[in-house]
Amino acid sequence: MMRPRPRGDRAGRVSAGRVSWRPSAPMTALALALLAIALLAIALATLLPTGCPREDPPGSASATTIPVRFDRVVDGDTIIVFMPDGARERVRYTGIDTPEVAHDGIPAEPFGDAAAEANREILEGGPVGLEMDVQERDDYGRVLAYVWAGDVLVNQELIRRGLATVWTHPPNVRHVEGFTAAQREAKAAGRGVWAD
């Protein structure tokens, strides 16, 4: 039987019958740097899709807003949209409640029709996008979202006009401070449902 001939490794070392290779110091540093970058990329990819809160300037749509095609208004806090994949979805506005419109033989509540009309008017003002929070659907299967029309957060604008009230359900509380401030403003001005 022939024995393998000893060979030199890349660093010039020879071992009897085996090749032993040890990376040079610069190569080790490069490998560690690439590993660190890969681990950072994996960590970011894991965290970002879960809806990590980010600081957006007030009055601007989040970079995580999903562009949708507006179809129609159901009432003051519910709309129908077409998602980017073409699916038609019913969207319930997160963090607010509006008076009901007439339905199923039940008469409209005061300001219900005004809230639905204001919702339609605001949505016609710009491209529509959905900003998701922690919980993305309610018990009825509706998409829960903050709805943007251009740079206008529709949920908050309806509160500011006095046509919606703050109605939060944790864990979806991303805009609660802005909603609460808008409600204080509407109450102080006596707008909509806050009129004497």
Tell me what the structure shows:
- By secondary structure, the chain is α+β, with helices and mostly antiparallel strands.
- It has a domain at about 65-195: OB fold (Dihydrolipoamide Acetyltransferase, E2P) (Beta Barrel), CATH 2.40.50.
- The protein has four helices and eight strands, in the order αββββαβββαβα.
- It has helices spanning about 25-45, 110-125, 155-160, 175-190; strands at about 65-75, 80, 90-95, 95, 130, 145-150, 150-155, 165.
- Strands 1-2-3-6-5 form a five-stranded mixed β-barrel. Strands 4-8 form a two-stranded antiparallel ribbon.
- Helix 3 packs parallel to helix 4.
- The protein is elongated, with a radius of gyration of 28 Å.
- It starts with about 25 loop residues before the first helix and ends in a 7-residue tail after the last helix.
- Mean pLDDT is about 80; it is low at about 45-60.
